[in-house]
Amino acid sequence: MSAERDIKFTAADFRRLRQMLYQRVGIALNDSKSHMAYSRLVKRVRQLGMRQFSDYLDLLDSNVDEEEWQHFVNALTTNLTAFFREPHHFDLLRLHALERAGQDRVYRVWSAAVSTGEEAYSIAITLLSLPQLNRKRLELVASDIDTRVLSHAADGIYDADRAKALDEAQLKRFFLRGVGRNAGKIRVRRDVRDQLSFYQFNLIAAQWPDMGRFDVIFCRNVLIYFDKPTQAAILQHFATCLQPDGLLFLGHSENIQHLCDAFQSCGRTAYRLVNPAVRG
What we know:
By secondary structure, the protein is of the alpha/beta class.
């Protein structure tokens, strides 16, 4: 490890940190992530007055501070997102929703790794733009393991330059522009924010709560952080959470065809449920 580091961080510390993160949230850091782990956690270690990472890891292992565990997870999870990222998914979402617009039931969508919220609000904008879809028959759920980004998502406040994928009509209908000291900011309108429910959720939890069945699940650029057995387990959970013929959207570098036979490809990183799982 670098001799310039003022906080001692050994190869053994990194191995231990990796194992702790994997056991807690299923994320498998590879060997190249040592510097990233150090840089994201070192400020917290300093704040606690510690001179070596092993003391911080001992604190976590003592299991006396759940809030500290959440800080640890928040620091080491990656949150890269944007409005209408991978726009072909939203085209498929629009078609899928229109096909079901006449059904006498609620249309349900889950953003399972919502990060700072851009994905969830892109879903909301897509569906609320459809006159055929009754707002009262629309349920949008968003979750993440990281409590910090969930708070950001629920607030719905963004720098205006993050909205480049939105046209002027969307900005006018779904956002408020900041003025004065909030100039350069935009905020999702309250009626749109109220359409969403935000929850903390750990995708590797042994038992998932019964959330009912969704028509669509977004879980993009998340599975890449898990090993193959964990990926397969999450996919089986998703299969129990989808309506027959429901859609699952994944990230551009994720391929599940050899992990789970419940889904069939129906577009670029888009999958349709063809073999519904039976609830236990």
